[in-house]
Amino acid sequence: MNKPVAPQRSDFDAYMVPNYSPGSIIPVRGEGSRVWDQADREFIDFAGGIAVTSLGHAHPELVAVLKEQGGKLWHLSNVLANEPALRLAKQLTELTFADKVLFANSGAEANEAAFKLARRYAWDIFGEGKHEIVACDSSFHGRTLFTVSVGGQMKYREGFEPVPGGISHVPFNSCSALEAAIGPQTCAFVVEPIQGEGGVTPACATFLRKARELCDKHDALLIFDEVQSGVGRSGFLYAYEHYGVTPDILSTAKGLGGGFPVAAMLCTDKVAGSFKVGTHGSTYGGNPLACAVASKVIEIVTRPEVLKGVTKRSDQFRAALEDINKRFDIFKEVRGMGLLLGAQLQDRFEGKARDFMQAGLEAGVMVLVAGTSVMRFAPSLIIPEADIDEGMARFAAAIEKTIATMDADAGAA
């Protein structure tokens, strides 16, 4: 019998909507923070599936719980409760500010639920006039029509207008602009404690404290989008703990499932009651398979050595990036928190982030971008220190080669 022909990168162009532009390799297996492609070429993973594979690839405890639950029960829908969902909800409420949890499948869905709940709560308590949502420039909250409207990047709304109204934006970290924007008509202010897609930029503590103060003053809800910054990535279970500012609603996804699709909206009792039976829903949200895996992720991430290790590994990443910068003068700034880090390129490399990302792939290291001029790093929270050293050596070699090529091209021109 002939062996089936393995799918090729060209099959993407042949059969899939051209919504993405995937790289030339096709990974087929992973272990820890290393990935192998069809040709058995090895890569060190500093991308983490965009901050998703929080415990690396094929973590044995996650594989075990997935197999165990897979042999029991996959799906029921929310017509019935299930044990893994109830267990996970209890964990999340005991570990955070939240009193109640609503499960979904993705960060966009968790944010959609958060925004709908904010409007529904305001409608219930204050009437339909109090419906406006304030968000930040350069923010990212998902790709549904509502979430791209709340997100502060026009490029994601282009061609999809008219978008939902009642939404305004302020400059990130501007207290004066926030004070001018939040008023009696505001039902919610939504913010990422660390802007991910917007350049890996942490919020100022004064900005978040002002947001809490203004929301309290005007009976508005404070929503933290922790889809990217949550589940240990900041060195805290959720980044709001670092700031000492507590939201009314929080969205979480990405790292929550360690690679298995799952998301949640966390909220206080004060607002939870506005989602009465039938006001919102999700067919797959809270399914037993996803919740069993997420429950194990939370159990592992909250082990003291894991959260402490995030800070240690963050320092190691920063030191390596500083060393690269001394050699090549490539970065303006390295910023972020924990293992969500961004390196802003110098002006002479403006718009070249993808060139360095591709060069990294060719050198055997997977990195990310955040916009056109920021390199982003979001590896496993438990990435071995030796992998950080080796991956950074590969990245440095990729930078050296790319800069040499750029300089040669400039000289030839």
UniProtKB/TrEMBL annotation:
It is found in: Cytoplasm. It is an enzyme of class 2 (transferase). Pyridoxal 5'-phosphate binds at G107, A108, F140, D225, E226, V227, Q228, T283. InterPro entries: Ac/SucOrn_transaminase_bac, AcOrn/SuccOrn_fam, Aminotrans_3, Aminotrans_3_PPA_site, Class-III_PLP-dep_AT, PyrdxlP-dep_Trfase, PyrdxlP-dep_Trfase_major, PyrdxlP-dep_Trfase_small. N(2)-acetyl-L-ornithine binds at R143, S282. Belongs to the class-III pyridoxal-phosphate-dependent aminotransferase family. ArgD subfamily. NCBIfam families: arg_catab_astC, argD, PRK01278.1, PRK05093.1. This is Acetylornithine aminotransferase. It comes from Allohahella marinimesophila. The gene is aruC.
